Amino acid sequence: MDYDILILGGGIIGCSVAYELSKYNFNIAVIEKDYDIADDISFVNTSVVYDGSETSDNVMAGLEYIGNYILKETCEKFKVPFKKIGALRVVNDDNGVKKLNEMYERAIRRGIDGVYLIDDKDVYDIEPNINMNIKKGLYSENVAIVAPYDLAIAYAEVASDNGVIFRLEEEVMNIQNLTKGFRVTTNKNKFSCKVVINTIPNEIYIQENGIVKDKEVCNDRNKFKNMSYLLVDDNYNNKLNKIVIETFDKDTFVLSTPTTSTGSLIGIKSTEKTSLDDNLNYANNLLINLDKSNINNLFRESYDKDSMLIDDSEIDRGYIRVTGTHYGKITIAPAIAKMICDTIANNLKCTLKKNFLDKRREVYKFRELNKKELNEIIALDKRYGKIICVCNNISEGEIVDCIRRPLGARTVEGVKRRTGAGFGSCHGAYCYEKIIKILARELDKKTTDIVNDSKNSRIISGRIKEFEEV
Q1: Contact 240, 290 (CB under 8 A)
Q2: How far is Cα of residue 152 from the mean position of the Cα atoms in its chain?
Q3: 148: which of 44, 49, 85, 343 is 20 to 30 A away, CA to CA?
Q4: How does 315-342 read in b/e, with b if 16+ C-beta sit within 10 Å?
């Protein structure tokens, strides 16, 4: 066998599964079709960590509850930004009050502590800047925010340091059953393995006579809702300190949350695509005097409310599939990974590694160091004293480190997502060219060979020979 276990998909689920399985004496590889791992995570490095009180699905609630507990310990161990700030859900009509009562009773039945049904006065005591008439609120002190990209990278780096192989730019073409195990064919290689774990969302392998001949990708977009996001500058004076959700109807709500760095994030969920003006109108039902001058960036994603289930019905043959997708996948990823790991370890009767290194290599961030720490790190490496991204105080040392680390950045987007460079108010106008030059130098490539986020996204197509620099 080439590998004991092949994990299909290098998203947050695949990276967390790889980390958990790397604790055991397995030979493991992760196959990812994209140029980098964790491309399923939004470039705004903030996600809500739920506690299981908001969902009507009991299975999802259980996974969220477990994931919330695991994430707190994991983020502390890997020094990933994690803030327990609490969430406040508010309504202004009788139907909304009825829904909040149902959610509260459901949380009590599930044994979730720290969830409270509160009146309008208590709501304004918690968040005095809310711009609406409140009838009732539901407050959960367990809800947190996390830096999801940092989390996925941490999982992958520790897994890599413990022997997991990450095979990027490889797409699975078919899977064939062998007498013992499987043969997995990608666009580049053929591998044999004992166990296949498919973590690719919405992709279902159709098996006929033991061979996966086709891939059926879920294209039913009717069940997806649009989610528009506004990234709000830190100069906005009336920002909310908690995660606050205002519900308009079953298909529309506004969410405000602080980010793990600076500023705040406003999410608007609706069944229709909305303009910036539409989003500002929705947001100003919750916030006070938010206008275009406060908006740093905006983007749109799908809002997925399906259940995510672990299909281990074929575990005896060595095949596990994670089906579906969910808005709380960051929360439930560690819970799913733990369940898959326990299932496989018991099934294969494997032992834990005696030399497992459960620690991430240190990351030094200029903006988080005090003067003494800065002087110490600059004395060791002067590049930490050279600022590349002025908006977010990102140094050259941080960029070089993110390229040289396990699974290091190979693209401009990879550098931006790992360090935060280029996500400031100038949107990379000052640092974009500098990042390209650093990538070219560290990867020993020409500047014309550096790409934005994939092999087909070259940034510079050519150069004028008269100039020494691009």
Answers
A1: no
A2: 7
A3: 343
A4: beebbbbbbbbbbbbbbbbbbbbbbbbe
Q: If you average pLDDT over residues 398-411, what whole number do you get? A: 95
The CA distance from 418 to 396, in Å, is 13
CA distances from 259 to 85, 97, 145, 353, 390 (A): 11, 28, 7, 37, 19
CA distances from 401 to 41, 249, 365, 410, 450 (A): 21, 47, 10, 12, 18
Q: Label residue 455 left, alpha or beta by phi (over 0 means left) and psi (-120 to 50 means alpha).
A: alpha
Return the bridge partners of 268, or none.
228, 254
- For helices 432-443 and 396-404, give the axis angle rounded to 10 degrees: 40
- Of 209-218, 228-237, 274-283, which gets the smallest average pLDDT? 209-218
Tell me how far apart the alpha carbons of residues 408 and 270 are, in angstroms, rounded to a whole number.
37
223: nearest Cα among 206, 202, 247, 204:
202
| Opening angle at CA 301, ends 300 and 307, nearest 5 | 160
Residue 53, φ and ψ in degrees, nearest 5: -90, -20
Structure tokens at 92: 């202004």
Q: For residue 129, what are its two tokens?
A: 């800047």
pTM of the model: 0.91
User: 226 forms bridges with which residues in the sheet?
Assistant: 270, 302
**CB half-sphere exposure, 259, CA atoms < 13 A:** 21
φ/ψ region of 289 (left if φ > 0, alpha if ψ in -120 to 50, else beta) reads left
Question: Would you give the DSSP letter of residue 464?
Answer: -
- What's the pLDDT score for residue 373? 93
H or E stretch including 175? strand 172-177
Report residue 28 as tokens. 């493991």
**Strand pairing class (252-258; 264-270):** antiparallel
Summarize pLDDT for 124-167 with one digit per residue, the tens.
Answer: 999 999 987 889 999 999 999 999 999 999 999 999 999 999 99
Classify burial at 76, counting beta carbons within 10 Å of its beta carbon; exposed 0-12, middle 13-18, buried 19 or more: exposed
DSSP for 264-287, please give it. Answer: EEEEEEESS---HHHHHHHHTTTS
* Enclosing H/E stretch for 151: helix 148-161
Q: What angle do CA 152, 157, 159 make, to 5 degrees?
A: 95
Residues 6+ apart with CB under 8 A from 209: none
